[in-house]
Each structure stands twice: as structure tokens, then as C-alpha cells.
Amino acid sequence: MRIFTASLATETNTFSPLPTSRATFEETFYAPPGTHPDDVTLCTAPLFVARRRAAQEGFDLIEGSCFWAEPSGTVDRKSYEAMRDEILDQLRAAMPLDGVLMGFHGALVVAGLDDAEGDVLDHVRQIVGPTCVIGCEYDPHVHLTEKRVRLADVSILFKEYPHVDVVPRAQELVTLVLKTIRGEIKPVCSLYDPRMIDFFPTTTEPMRSFVDKMMALEGKDEVLSVSLAHGFMHADTPDMGTRVLVITNDAKPHGDALAQTLGEEVFEGRGRWCAPVLTLDEALDQVLAHQGGLAILAEPADNAGGGAASDNTMTLHALIARGAQRVAVAPVWDAQAVGFCHAAGLGAAISLRFGGKASAGSGDPVDADVTVIGLAHDAIQMFGDAKVPLGNAAAVRIGGGDGGGIDVILIEKRTQALGLGLFTELGLDPAAYQALVLKSAQHFAGAFGPLASLIVRAETGGACPTQPQSHPYKSVKRPIWPLDEQVAGKALI
Question: Where on the phi/psi map is residue 307: left (φ > 0), alpha (ψ -120 to 50), or beta?
Fold first, then answer.
């Protein structure tokens, strides 16, 4: 048995001011054949799992190139085609094949091409033929198009948000692909579209119970897999939105009915899957008055994981105006400011301008007298089992005295708040603050959530507003809730 695996992944925010090219991918993560580390990353879990399964079960695994870019703006066509064709050339050289495993994010948008993953799979299918088994793993913030579902035999999405189940879902994918190759199962897909856009954090109710329900359905009544595509609202593509995918073992009528039932349940709960997002003033009132332990204010709108710059200063200016104490803001992407701090040295008192650089949506920069309270070279934070580089990093304090002041974590490599290393690499204890302001939508909850007794989300400045109505969509298929009130769900496959 011969199986090929590769990965081409990013999450494209078509409203982001940050351009994306091949260089953007290579600066974040690029592993040509023979160079992929023996570690898992967000979108190379199929390779990571298949490598171990090949050693255990004796099949041949051919590893192709893997690309990942930190979420940003639309990918330029020439860069995309060069990366795609690099993988396709490797695929041709690996023929004949029994199976292909692709690691995608699922929301890669290219200039002039909305469904990049569907395009990749179209080319893959043409090369490998109709009988080769194709399996794909996706992030739930995916544009789950009919084209890509039809072209693959098995499509598996992470169920958890934050994405702590990347490896378990890859294990399921590899298992189902191997069983299909061996003729033990015949996967058949059912795809339902409830016509909606929403936000689905899985650490809290009611989403926690819905995820548990999906998992309980698997393995019974010929159900092989159940996935909820959350969709990615910060992309203006025709197929953006929520969808339900059910894969059965040659039991399509049952899969169709189950996909529709689950899709209708998701639509029934629209607008209630997540706690309301507050105004910035409302959120600050709550976290600064909170006395029962650590409070967290999340900034989804400036989430680098959604394509924002992570240098918006709206919250920082508000905290300074309020004279906040024992509060930390993390992370602010500003490589130049990090360089100034490293040049000044630990303990230095300097005048520093930081933030507010990427675009008009980043706000005005902060000009403040700060003390450098932490420095780190080649810092990392952990996201589950994956190491996420921060580059050089610095922590600065605005104000101080007995109350502490406002601490700001500055990083060289743009990323969101994921792990405690964002603080501990700089010698800081995140639990020692009254409040943390974290630039993230939900992924912070895995590491920071257990420390907090209060978590609120605020609408601030940035390229990822929490309300879909804030985006000037032109390509999204209408009607769709909440842009439209009168909508009707439908079966797609």
C-alpha cells in the first residue's frame, strides 16, 4: 500500500490589510520532503499520524511539501500556483498510489479563486484517478464547498474550538482512509447547509453538549463521522457559512436525515451559541471591577489567528485613560518596538512608540514612558502539542508604583494569544494580574481559561469584527442569517 501526504493551508481574511505571498508561508512554516519535524502542527496532523501508522502497519508513506501561513489577506495567484504545483509534481512522482492524505485549513482564498482547496483536489483527482482514496482534514473555520466534499472520499473537521483535537481527528481520518482502501467500508457523504453565520466556542454550553452529541453519534447506525463546519465569517466567498457533514458507511438516506436534523438544530440555536460580545466600555467596567480572581477580556476583532494585524491600540488607550493597574495586554505585534527594547536592555526606562502600524484600522500608536521588564530571544508559546514561535519578545510596563501598572507583551512574529509561554518566556506569571487583555477570539481559552474566573469578549478595532454585518460582503450567497431574516436550509449533497 502506498499513500502520499502533503499540506497547503492558511486562513484568508479577505478584509485584512496584510498581503500574503509564498514568502509569507515560508516565513511561517515550510517543510519540503524529508524536512518535516517529528512534531505536529495545526494542519500537518495527517502526516504526523500517518508517519507513525506507516511504521506500525507497514505501508509506504511518501511525504510531500507542507506550507502554512499565519492568517492574513488574499493569497496572490502566482504564489498559490507555485506551491500547488510543487505538491502536484511530487504527487505525480509518487504514483502509483492507493491513497492521498491532505492537510488543509479550508479557508484559503486566492486572487481570482475562491475555492483553492477544491482546485487542489481537482488536480489531485485528475492525477490519481477515480479509485485512489483521498482523505482531507480541515479546521472547522472552513468554507466546506460541494466541490471539495465530492472530490474527496473522506473529509474530517476538528470538532473543538480551541482546536485541541487536531491529532485525534487525524487518527480518525487515517483510519477511515485505510479501511476504505482495504474495502472494509464505503464512505458516503451527506452535506447540509442551514444558511447561517455564527460563532461556536466549544468550551462552554450549549456548544459543549452539541460536540458531545456529534461524537456520541459516531460508530452507531453506520455513522462514520459527523462534522460541523463553523465557517469563517471574515472571508467574502460564495460558500462562506455554517454546514453539517455526515459520513456513513453506504447509508446515505440515514446520513441525509441526520445532517438535516443537526443542521436544523444549529439554526434553531442561532445567536445563542456564544455569550454576547460587549462594548469595550462595558467589558472594561466588568474586568476592572472584578474581585473574584483573574478576569480575561478577549479581543476577537484584533485576532491574528483570523487575519488581523494584532497591533490595534483601542483597548490600550482606554486602559491608560482609566489609569488601570495590574493589567496585561498580549500580544501586540511590533517587531520594531521589540528591537528597541532589546537594544535598551532589561530594566531600562525608555520612551517607546508601539502599535498602530499596519493600517488605519490599527488605531493611533501608543507613545509612553515604559520600563522594560522582560526580554526573550526566539520565544515560543504552546498550542496544545504544537510549538508556535513568537520570535524575539519584550514586556514593557506603563506606569507602576505599588499598583503595578499596565504590562504589554510585544512580539516579533505575528500570532494570537495561545499559550502561557506568551508570559512565562518573559519571566511573568499570567495568574498574578487582576486582568488580562488577550488578542484572540477563542483559542486563548485552552491555556488561559482555567486561570480565569471571568471571561468576557469586547468589540474593539481590527480586521475581525464579531458582527458579520460589519463586513461589506459582495460575493457571499444570499439569503443567509443574520444578513437576512428569511432563509431556508437545504441539502447540498
Answer: left
CA angle 33, 36, 39 (to 5 degrees): 160
Q: What is the pLDDT of residue 312?
A: 97
CA-to-CA distance for 4 and 6, rounded, in angstroms?
7
How far the first Cα of the chain sits from its last, in Å, is 30
Report the share of the chain in percent with pLDDT over 90: 98
| Cell numbers placing 481 | 442569517
Q: At what angle do helices 166-181 and 45-57 cross, to 10 degrees?
A: 50
The cell for 52 is 507513525
Buried b / exposed e along 370-381 (16+ C-beta atoms within 10 A): bbbbbbbeebbb
Give the pLDDT confidence score for residue 404 in this predicted structure.
84
Is 117 in a helix, a strand, or coil? helix
The residue behind cell 510549538 is: 387
Q: pLDDT confidence of 490, banded at 50, 70, 90?
A: very high
Q: Is the pLDDT of residue 402 over 80?
A: no
pLDDT value, residue 403: 67
Sequence-ordered list of residues with C-beta below 8 angstroms from that of 33, at least 6 positions apart, any chain: 63, 64, 65, 90
Give counts: helices (H), strands (E), the chain: 13, 19
Grid cell locating 428: 511573568
Q: How confident is the model at residue 2 (pLDDT cuts 50, 70, 90)?
A: very high
* pLDDT tens-digit map of 61-70: 999 999 999 9
Q: How do beta strands 452-459 and 294-298 pair?
A: parallel
**Whole-angstrom distance, CA of residue 431 vs CA of residue 364:** 29
Amino acid 153: pLDDT: 98
CA–CA distance, 67 with 24 (Å, rounded to integer): 10
Please confirm whether the linkage preceding 37 is cis (ω < 30° from 0): no
3 state DSSP class of 374 = strand
